[in-house]
Design brief:
Bound molecules: nicotinamide-adenine-dinucleotide
Mean pLDDT: 98
Number of strands: 24
Low-confidence stretches: none
Shape: globular
Largest sheet: 7 strands, mixed
Oligomer: single chain
Helix content: 40-55%
Strand content: 15-25%
Number of helices: 16
Distance between the termini: 76 Å
């Protein structure tokens, strides 16, 4: 078991942890605070300032002032890149501290936090900083009689509302392109996992990010989140989370007539043909559904298996899932931690009950892990009708729903039963066939012989119920944060 670092202990004890507004660490205007819990024990981890409309207002004001006066918006991209690389360096230097905070707050295994979540943040900062340096802000347009070009400049204050499953990674995916383009940002982290984002603010200060360029207000969705989404001072808003809240954020953005990026939930399918290596594919899909305790928007939660290999595949994957070691995030023997909260545990257990009440068979029962304190849930496999609630709705836990297919057309039809369109995968030794299938699936991402593939430069986004607005992580994402303007001079 890793010892909690003294810096982490001190950080957690210093509550209520304040907001970061205009380069200062300040408490809530109304003095409110809330508790965040360690999902591995159920104990209170820290107290955090609870933001309301007045705090959001102050933070938008600080971000606007920084946009107008700090020089950030007009810095040459090179100079901004230097600061963003310095910030990425700080993230890397403090990887152990950040990883511990993330593991304690989300419940995820420390190795995953250190090997994936934290570096994803620093890589996002570096990728977009470098991309901005290479981006032409003035692009000539060849037209008869007109001297014309497109000029691109940052928008202003960009608001970000983030969920609890990958706080640091999603912080990077969201704010890095906006900052690299010269905007200023205000982030509202999820109330269940605000801690690593607050610690990140200290690193921003140490890296010399000008005051007011990065602002963070913690708090609940209905108060701080809603106030941010509807604030008239925002130039853009981006939301990552559930479709229900995404719809409310889109409505608020529409009322202010500002662009809105939505990265929403998913119900990812994996189509497994009968020519795969069964043991290998079973292992990879077992990893996909237990990654972050299944709390991954794009992961494979509907497994559509060719009927010829169905029995062998089920045996292989059951054995893998039964071998998964549940445990505390800081314990190096842990493969899978708890879900994030008691509320989330009730949600997952509720789906298991409802699914079986609607006729699904439990191929692997799963359910609550009573031998551990905290919010642990064992991996489960259900099988049955594509109309079952567990085949249709996002559960967000370590649960996969199994279905059989015999023809490619049938597999595609099963995938499209879901209104989500985030990510699917096709597993086959016949790569041309897999490619054809991958192209036929309507979603932001189709992976072949893999699931959950992320890289900076590789566009990632959703279709249908999984969101709109351009996605993240691609060169186009940087463009999304630059406002295009035509500059034109007619000549004879
Ligand atoms: P959620 O929608 O409940 O909350 C997300 C954020 O919105 C939180 O910060 C919350 O405080 C805030 N919020 C809640 N109500 C609000 C309101 N009325 N106005 C403004 N903000 C409000 O989602 P969650 O439970 O935190 O996260 C799980 C969901 O996120 C899943 O659906 C998952 O698939 C999705 N997700 C999507 C992606 C992606 O990239 N597409 C990534 C991670 C998670």
């Amino acid at each position: 078991m890793a010892e909690v670092l003294p810096q982490v202990k001190k950080f957690l004890a210093d509550g209520p942890l304040p907001f970061y507004i205009g380069g200062e660490f300040i408490p809530a205007v109304a003095g409110g605070a809330f508790e965040t819990r360690d999902p591995g024990s159920g104990e209170v981890l820290a107290r955090v300032a609870a933001g309301e409309a007045a705090d959001i207002d102050a933070a938008v004001g600080a971000a606007q002032q920084a946009f107008d006066q700090s020089g950030w918006a007009n810095l040459p991209a090179n100079d901004r890149a230097v600061i963003l690389h310095r910030l990425a360096d700080k993230v890397d230097e403090q990887a152990e501290v950040l990883a511990q905070i993330e593991s304690l707050d989300v419940g995820k295994p420390l190795g995953q936090a250190k090997g994936f979540d934290v570096p994803s943040l620093s890589q996002a900062l570096r990728y977009f900083a470098d991309l901005a340096v290479q981006t032409r802000l003035r692009e000539p347009i060849a037209l008869r009689g007109l001297e014309a070009y497109t000029y691109r400049s940052p928008y202003g204050v960009c608001g970000f509302i983030v969920p609890w499953n990958f706080p640091l990674l999603l912080l990077g995916w969201n704010i890095a392109p906006a900052l690299a383009a010269g905007n200023t940002v205000l982030v509202k982290p999820a109330e269940d996992t605000p801690l690593s984002t607050l610690y990140f603010c200290r690193l921003a200060e140490m890296a010399g990010v000008p005051a007011g360029v990065i602002n963070v207000v913690t708090g609940f969705g209905a108060t701080a989140g809603a106030a941010l989404a509807s604030h008239p001072g925002l130039a853009r808003v981006a939301f990552t989370g559930s479709p229900e809240v995404g719809r409310a954020v889109a409505v608020a953005a529409a009322k202010n007539l500002i662009p809105c990026k939505l990265e929403l939930g998913g119900k990812g399918a994996a189509i497994v043909f009968d020519d795969v290596d069964i043991a290998q594919t079973a292992e990879k899909l077992a990893q996909a559904v237990t990654l972050n305790c299944g709390q991954v928007c794009c992961t494979a939660t509907r497994w559509i298996i060719h009927q010829r290999i169905y029995p062998q595949f089920v045996d292989a994957v059951k054995a893998k899932l039964q071998a998964v070691r549940l445990g505390y995030g800081l314990d190096s023997a842990t493969d899978m931690g708890p879900v994030v909260s008691e509320k989330q545990r009730r949600r997952v257990l509720g789906y298991l009950e409802k699914g079986q009440a609607q006729g699904a068979t439990a191929v692997l029962q799963g359910g609550a892990e009573a031998s551990l304190p905290g919010y642990f849930v064992k991996p489960a496999l259900l099988a049955g009708s594509p109309d079952n609630i567990c085949a249709r709705e996002e559960i967000f836990g370590p649960v996969a729903f199994l279905m059989k297919f015999s023809t490619p057309e049938q597999a595609i039809e099963l995938v499209h039963r879901s209104r989500y369109g985030l990510a699917n995968s096709v597993w086959s030794a016949d790569v041309p066939r897999a490619r054809k299938m991958a192209e036929a699936l309507v979603a932001g991402n189709s992976w072949i012989n893999a699931h959950n593939v992320f890289a900076y430069g590789l566009p990632y986004g959703g279709a249908n119920l999984s969101g709109f607005g351009g996605g993240v992580n691609s060169p186009e994402t940087l463009r999304d944060y630059l406002r295009p303007q035509s500059i034109v001079r007619p000549y004879d």
